[in-house]
Amino acid sequence: MRTEDVLAAIATGLWRWDNASGKVTLDGEAARLLGLPAEPVVLPEVAVRSRFHPVDWNEINGIINLAVAEDTLAEARLRIMDEDGRVLRTVRSRSKPLERRTPDGPVDFELIGTLQEIAEPQPGTTAVHTPITGDWRRSREAFLLDAGRALAEARSTAEVLRVAASLSMPGFSPDGLAVFGVEGDRLSVIGHHGHGPGDEGPFTDMGMETAYPAAEVVRTGRAIYLPTPEDYRRRFPAAWPLAQRFGRVSWAFLPLIVAGRTMGAWMAAFKHPVSFSPDERSVLTTVARMLAQALQRAGVAESERELTTGLQRSMMPQLGPEVPGMTIAARYVPTGGGLQVGGDWYDMIPLPSGRFALVIGDVQGHDVRAAGLMGQLRIAVRAYASEGHRPDAVLSRASRFLAGLCSSQEREEEAGQDLGPRFATCLYVECDPETGMLEVARAGHPDPAVRMADGTVLLRPTAGGLPLGIIPDTDYPTTRFVLEPGETMMLCTDGLIETGGHDHDTGWARLRTILESDPPQPAGGDATAPGSAHLERMADLLVQAVHGPSSHHTTGPLADRREDDIAVVLLCREGPGCGCGTPPAQPVRPARRTMLTVAQAEPGRIAGARRQIQEFLHDWADPDQVDSAVLMVSEMVTNVLVHTDGDALLVAEAAGDLGARRLRVEVADGSDELPHKRQPGEMASSGRGVLLMEMLADAWGVDPRGEGKSIWFELHERSKPDADALD
Description:
The chain is of the alpha+beta class. It is built from 18 helices and 29 strands. The strands form 5 sheets. Strands 1, 2, 3, 4, 5, 6 and 7 form a 7-stranded antiparallel β-sheet that branches. A 6-stranded antiparallel β-sheet has the order 10-9-8-13-12-11, sandwiched between helices. A hairpin with a 2-residue loop joins β8 (176-183) and β9 (186-193). α5 (136-153) packs parallel to α10. The longest helix has 38 residues, at 278-315. It is elongated. The protein starts with a helix and ends in an 11-residue tail after the last strand.
């Protein structure tokens, strides 16, 4: 027989109380003894505490502290209460407090022990008739502290009402509660407990002049206590027939007052006689004040949520109509602060040319001003794009617009409230859905990332300028590249990269793992289902990687950094391997291809070309071949910039099955002069390009073109080094 079965047979349960985390673990028998379903469960501390009589709970705290000090067992008898304040049973607790120490001293403890049912009192006995031990005033203070904390943590009106219904007052818990609210000259029930469905009907819409206790409390701002039915019938004869049918014998009606204004009334009704002594009235009055404050906070919070939700809906546009051959998905996640909309935005803009533009941006800040600037800047960018301007012209005009807007707002700031200028990063992409051609202009924003048809993800380096609004007249160069069939481009704000304490490098590594995972399958496992479902799931996975449970275990080195808003847009050109549309009957592993231009005026981008090849070959079987490819690319691009007057166009393609792929890299330029083999001396700083190609490449050559030439080399992937290379 299992230990659990033996303990259940003798009505004994096991519990573990972690005081540091506020979590209580119960086995099935312990849960049953506390009046819960008989199954293992982990509950917050407040849910378990509400099951104990407050007097007993106050006493067991002292017993536990003494056991911690003396290193002994803590033993106590506890009365278990139901939701109506009635004693279900009495249990005996025997537990061992385990103290947790740190180099600075003790910090907390964990309680591990048993709960065992004892014969008294019998179920059905009300709490008021149970012998009460201990100091009632101490119990009252403990109850008020618990009630205040629970009400302060409530975030909505519904939560406040649930907390009010669960309050177990020391010695005189009500079994019926109602909260009345005021709207104009009318009084209505906004929440109740201990009544059946529809019982609130007669009280849902009453005039303030009604001869009802709650109405009088709101009119006068003074509490009304009715210890007996005779008192109720004598003072409110017209309302007595409505109250009589509930079978209560004592009532308390208290005003809910905030900042000197009566916002409603609170009714506490009892099935057992209550004399409403000064101590009992003090408890009820204090609870009413805390309840009023909690309802006021919840109302303000709900109004703010409604306002910000509406603001977010108006500022975050829906993606436009479907684009043939392309699929788009987007997400916006506000920061964890109170304002649910910030400076991040995205947009999809139809253009007069038949193309469309994708825009993503981030205005500095997380406040109302950032949200306002974001809305105005988004509208301005949309207007400039709709006029047919090219990407560089759109960003140039937007920069002038933001600089002028911030200057005018600064002049309007009151003395002592100068917030300084604001800037914004932005990425503008003009897309041709027929050819997949993308024209990108970037203003201080993170580069786009492209997931190729075979699942490899590369950052796509693009030319860029300063963020918008810093210098009004700023040029923004345009970068052109093709989104091949089966490829997906991701645009995002830095919040997606850096949330969770990550910097740019570690953040990209985290996202790259998600993007390079196998294409998500549609619900139900149907991998052939067409549509944008897979792209939507990819967007969800990216957000979950940053905000989901796994993000708490992958925090970066800058964990104290403030969190940021997140905007992300995914653009997929449908084709083999992307998961959109209908896949081919016989899938073929697509080729991996990338292209990069290195201009004469930007020799620093040679390092970007080397990094691009390294990322391109990140899963290549032989690391030595990767180093060889990087070296040859660096030599080829450098030769173009040094020996010609034109730019270098780099195109790399890897095709074939894993482990047996063929890499072909071409570097084209506008010069007709062909490379020739030289014999450089030991101290020469150049002249080794052809020698490197002959030594490192499996094949290489030069292809003349109409204007210029193309130098190329090929490498055949080797799963392990050649034997000849080891001799």
